[in-house]
Design brief:
The structure is a single chain. With 553 residues, the chain is α/β, with parallel strands linked by helices. The protein has a domain of 309 residues: Alpha/Beta hydrolase fold, catalytic domain (Rossmann fold, 3-Layer(aba) Sandwich). 31% of the residues lie in helices and 16% in strands. It has 18 helices and 15 strands. Strands 1, 2, 3, 4, 7, 8, 9, 10, 11, 12, 13, 14 and 15 form a 13-stranded mixed beta sheet that branches. Strands 5-6 form a two-stranded antiparallel ribbon. Helix 6 crosses helix 7 and helix 14 crosses helix 17. The radius of gyration is 23 Å and the shape is globular.
């Protein structure tokens, strides 16, 4: 409520109208939280037809032109989902919108553009100011665009039967169409269509990387910021194609695993019932012992269509990716594994049943090796994180969280850096480690564990980039406020000219990664900024040894 009241007082009664290829849109002039600088918010601009009826699970279709002036002064509803925090179904299928926030509609030259893809495991999340208010960015001369895309089964149902035209990845295809709309229209908002930075966190980062690899996005953006996520993360793709059948069965379907029959059943099921169940299909074995996180996620599409985004395993796409020619920022938080703190506390058998650690090995490794090789790999993993300690909840809780942080996030990002070292050394790749630990402002950690737990959790970098419903105004002398200034300085400098170095981190210099004969270095973002050897390199290199070269990247 405090946030809503604050935003009310920071809006004005003035509006602006902009012409787009789809029709005219009206936005509201607002003011930023700290410096009261004005910007124009165009919220809820449709970039695709409503994905209803035959389009419910399929690739999006371009929006038709509307008549008159579309009122975009208020945010639209989020995409249909089972709310992560309230555990109630919320949102709507009619959700394919972009929110465009403009610092200046007129300037001497067009402004750099930052396009945001929200996270949420492909199951949850939204592109609204309630969660991702861009006020901090809009103290700079940039344009900020947030994309809304389909989630859960609506965004990632995949069926093998080509007659159905549901190969999967509809949510990623939403993002592709949104980028095409942005490329075509951003100049009308005073944006530079040749200076677009794509940015995402967690599954938003995995999405951004998927879009870096597919040929369908070539030329739609010019640099990327990937935060705590990769399309190589074990939760960011699924080797299974039976989730549709399992969802239909959970809804009451009594037939066999026949794609046409399953699709017919899901097509007539109530969308809210689908949303209520699409993130609850994992068995206890899969969830607690196989350490799977989600069901409906990106897939290697089972057949090729004109809209295909992922035609083959992502690691096979790195070598020839067009994005090897554009700059990248990529990084992690220092304690990503706090993401699993509450879950592990609730289910101590997650640790007690670890045994030889084989179940924690990556899926793509487990299906390639024999039992003896897997046992040796598991013991190597066990020794790296637990040493000679007894595998029990009380003995190895903390190193287990570190292990899960590397399994779920860190090592996939490490693999991304290795691939960039090999295939993209002609352009800069900047590697960072977010290590700032605030008791009151690391908001994601406050939800996933407790404020007394130390470390920068997965998602803890977001409050330093976005104002949101749980945020409060800070003293300008606080370390938290200074961290916001640093993060925004780094990110907007990179979005302007591909070099993140700015006055806020001087005298430190953030250097891009170098060839593979040198130790990996990173910008460590803490109360003090430093350029250091990557502290987790050794443990990530242990994970490297589980992969053959063709699997690694």
């Amino acid at each position: 409520m405090k946030y809503l009241i604050l935003q009310h007082f920071l809006s004005t009664n003035r509006t602006e109208i902009v012409e787009t290829s789809s029709g005219k849109v009206k936005g509201l002039v607002r003011k930023t939280v700290y410096d009261k600088e004005e910007y124009v918010a165009f919220e809820g601009i449709p970039y695709a037809k409503s994905p209803l009826g035959e389009l419910k699970f399929r690739a999006p279709q371009p929006i038709k032109r509307w008549e008159g002036i579309l009122n975009c002064t208020k945010p639209k509803n989020r995409c249909l989902q089972n709310d992560l925090f309230l555990r109630v179904v919320a949102g709507t299928l009619d959700c394919l919108y972009v929110n465009v926030y403009v610092k200046k509609l007129k300037s001497e030259k067009p402004l750099p553009v930052i396009v945001w893809i929200h996270g949420g495991g492909y199951q949850y999340g939204e592109a609204t100011r309630r969660v991702y208010a861009p006020d901090y960015f809009l103290n700079k001369d940039v344009i900020f665009v947030a994309i809304s895309y389909r989630l859960g089964a609506f965004g990632f149902l995949s069926l093998k039967d080509p007659d159905l035209n549901v190969p999967g990845n509809a949510g990623l295809k939403d993002q592709v169409l949104a980028l095409r709309w942005i490329k075509e229209n951003i100049a009308n908002f005073n944006g530079d269509a040749n200076n677009i930075t794509l940015m995402g966190e967690s599954s938003g980062a995995a999405s951004a990387q998927a879009l870096m690899l597919t040929e369908r996005t070539k030329g739609l953006f010019h640099r990327v910021i990937v935060q705590s996520g990769s399309i190589l993360c074990p939760w960011a793709w699924t080797p299974k194609y039976d989730w549709g059948y399992r969802l239909a069965s959970a809804l009451g379907y009594k037939g066999t695993n026949n794609d046409k029959e399953v699709f017919q059943y899901l097509s007539t099921a109530k969308p809210r019932k689908i949303a209520a169940l699409s993130d609850r299909l994992l068995t206890e074995e899969e969830n607690l012992l196989e350490h799977m996180l989600f069901s409906f996620t990106p897939v290697v599409e089972p057949y090729i269509t004109a809209d295909c985004v992922i035609p083959k395993p992502s690691n096979e796409m790195f070598k020839d990716a067009w994005s090897n020619e554009i700059p990248l920022i990529v990084g992690v938080t220092s304690t990503e594994g706090l993401f699993t703190y509450r879950h592990t506390m609730k289910y101590p058998d997650t640790i007690n049943k670890l045994s030889d650690c084989v179940r924690i090995l990556p899926y793509e490794v487990r299906v390639k090796q024999n039992s003896e090789e897997l046992k040796e790999m598991g013991l190597r993993l066990k020794q790296t994180y637990f040493g000679d300690k007894q595998i029990s909840f009380n003995e190895v809780f903390t190193p287990f969280l570190e292990l899960m942080g590397h399994k779920n996030f860190g090592h996939a990002i490490h693999r991304t850096v290795l691939a960039r070292r090999k295939y993209a050394l002609q352009v800069p790749t900047y590697f960072y480690r977010f290590d700032f630990d605030s008791v009151n402002f690391n908001h994601y950690k406050k939800y996933t564990c407790y404020s007394s737990v130390r470390g920068a959790s997965h998602g803890d970098d977001l409050p330093y980039l976005f104002f949101h419903a749980a945020a409060s105004k800070l003293s300008r002398t606080s370390s938290e406020f200074k961290t916001i200034q640093r993060m925004i300085g780094l990110w907007t400098s990179f979005a302007t000219d591909s070099d993140p170095n700015c006055d806020k981190i001087k005298p430190c210099i953030w250097q891009p990664i170098e060839n593979d004969n040198k130790p990996l270095k990173c910008l460590n973002i803490n109360e003090n900024i430093s350029f250091i050897d990557f502290p987790e390199q050794f443990k990530n290199e242990v994970w490297d040894t589980f992969y053959t070269n063709e699997l690694l990247f």
